[in-house]
Amino acid sequence: ETQIQYERVGADVTIKCGSMDWDAAVTWTANGTDIDESHLNGSYLILKKVDLTQSGQYSCYEGSSWHLKYQTYLRVGTPPKEPLLMCRSNNYPKGFYCSWHLPTPTYIPNSFNISVIHGTKEMVCEKDVFPKNRCHIRYLQLFSTVKYKVTLTVTNALGKNSTTLTFDEFTIVKPDPPENVVAKPVPNNPRRLEVSWQNPSSWPDPESFPLKFFLRYRPLILDQWQHV
Q1: Which domains does the chain have, with CATH numbers?
Q2: pLDDT recorded at residue 190
Q3: CB distance 48 to 87 below 8 Å
Q4: Which pLDDT does position 1 carry in this prediction?
């Protein structure tokens, strides 16, 4: 079975030929291509300051018989930087969602773990299938003055990092934009436009939680906006 060996970009990497002695005569290949002997220290393979292009399958063969003695898959990457986390309620009062991403890629697999605490109570954040880096929380009680604390931890084979948000329920309520916005000229009135729109379909209860709309407009030749 093939081992997987994770190493960080810029590291010096030593790969041993399985259980072969240090002074055994061996040949190494990378993705099927022979590696020059100058990279060997005895039977050990020495890679200086690895970069992303050196990810791949490394195989070690016994010198005389060409028996495969050891194989490893080298994956070069970086530990995760602090993840970016955002929480928002676009369907108040049902609940809110949190989404996250990394500021820079790590080039190796990452796992994300999110914990949501409301006061002393741990809440379930149900992962969405799509988009995959998102989960949603149902409100258990409305108009709660207890803060939410959301911690996201990202882990990979080279390290871990986390970020925490603490917020009040009302500060993350942000409806989606209005839908089906249409502007039509008013017949026989060249200086007037009729603008119509609909509530965002994601907003569940516009009766109990009515939305306010703001309109601003300007002729293309002017920089100043007019607000309605």
Answers
A1: 3-77 (2.60.40.10), 84-172 (2.60.40.10), 176-227 (no CATH)
A2: 86
A3: no
A4: 61
